[in-house]
Design goal:
Strand content: under 5%
Largest sheet: 2 strands, antiparallel
Shape: globular
Number of domains: 1
Radius of gyration: 20 Å
Order of helices and strands: EEHHHHHHEEHHHHHEEHHHHH
Strand order of the largest sheet: 1-2
Structural class: mainly alpha
Number of helices: 16
């Protein structure tokens, strides 16, 4: 949650305070904010989800220590930045992923996505999401779970030996058969998190509690996540889709609004499904890889939302949060240039 300018490290989007102590305070505040989601994941999926999380965090911190020693720079593992990366990476993984995959993802996040660019404040992409993308490419089969542990297992043992059920995630249903979403899940289930999904993403309630803590502390600003989520919720209504009979169904047709309550509930289901809430509040707001101006943050959030909606409605992938943020990270420089404040008397240089 930091932004680096030449020779200057500033913390945002709240008051801009320089120094390692401020960075450490912010990073450990993020860890505290993620505790409710971690507790819920343990209750929902069992102790193995905790083992995946601890493995990812320890691997991230150990990689940070090793690389900083090799680079002969100050070791800063106590600032919490590596711990946050490992924690967020673990939260994007399914609860049955092999431990070595979580460890390798953390190594990639720290070694390649962070230190290959110079370390904290210099990276272009969110390290945790870059690690998730690496795992998707290198170990895609490890992310596929045909069966999920019985929800609310509450520390009942190894996830691989639990009674399991075959069920699709809400995002998969919303993509393949949106009309069937409420045959499987209620909005309340989506909100509190009694659904299959990645370790830290299922409970919107737990994530919003943590997000509220960060906003009260002025560590994150509401504009980016709200723009992100509202854009997705609006576009999944406005985007035309091909019906089962081959015709195009769109919001301009009267039949589309035959059940307006369902249309709005489906939109809300998209907002509560997958990693959208977690990505909007805890990843897109990473101030290393997101714009620094309030206008730029709103633009960034809206851009992420457009990409998620396109991927979910028209793509072959039911989620989209990871790639939406990584793609928008790539154009942050352009957004900053467009939205940076103009000073009186400032002249453009040739």
């Amino acid at each position: 949650m930091i932004q680096q300018f030449p020779k200057t490290l500033i913390v945002g989007p709240g008051p801009h305070i320089s120094g390692a102590d401020s960075t450490s305070s912010i990073m450990w505040s993020v860890v505290i904010a993620l505790v409710p989601a971690f507790i819920f994941s343990m209750a929902n999926f069992g102790w193995y989800a905790g083992a995946v999380t601890i493995t990812a965090v320890v691997s991230a911190v150990a990689t940070e220590w090793a690389i900083q020693r090799m680079r002969k720079v100050s070791v800063t593992i106590t600032d919490g930045s590596a711990a946050v990366t490992g924690l967020l990476l673990a939260f994007t993984l399914p609860p049955g992923v092999p431990l070595y995959v979580a460890a390798l993802g953390s190594v990639f996040s720290i070694a390649v996505a962070k230190h290959a660019f110079g370390g904290l404040g210099m990276n272009i992409w969110n390290p945790a999401l870059a690690g998730r993308a690496f795992i998707s490419a290198a170990y895609s089969s490890a992310l596929f779970m045909p069966k999920w542990p019985v929800l609310s297992s509450i520390f009942s043992g190894d996830i691989r030996t639990l009674d399991a059920v075959t069920m699709a995630t809400p995002c998969a249903i919303l993509q393949s058969d949106p009309a069937a979403i409420f045959q499987h899940y209620r909005l309340w289930d989506l909100f509190i998190g009694r659904i299959p999904g990645s370790i830290g993403e299922t409970s919107a309630l737990a994530l919003l509690i943590g997000a509220a803590f960060l906003m009260v502390r002025k560590i994150i600003d509401w504009r980016l996540p709200v723009a992100y989520i509202l854009t997705v919720a609006l576009l999944v209504i406005l985007f035309p889709v091909r019906a089962a009979d081959g015709t195009i169904a769109g919001f301009w047709q009267a039949s589309f609004w035959a059940d307006p309550v369902f249309v709005l509930e489906r939109s809300l289901a998209h907002a509560l499904s997958g990693g959208l809430v977690m990505g909007a509040f805890f990843m897109a707001t990473d101030m290393v890889t997101s714009p620094i101006t309030k206008k730029g943050q709103a633009m960034f959030g809206a851009g992420c939302g457009v990409l998620v909606a396109v991927i979910r409605v028209y793509g072959g992938y039911p989620e989209g949060v990871c790639y939406s943020i990584l793609l928008m990270n790539t154009v942050v420089w352009a957004i900053d240039n467009m939205t940076k404040p103009k000073f009186f008397g400032e002249r453009a240089h040739a």
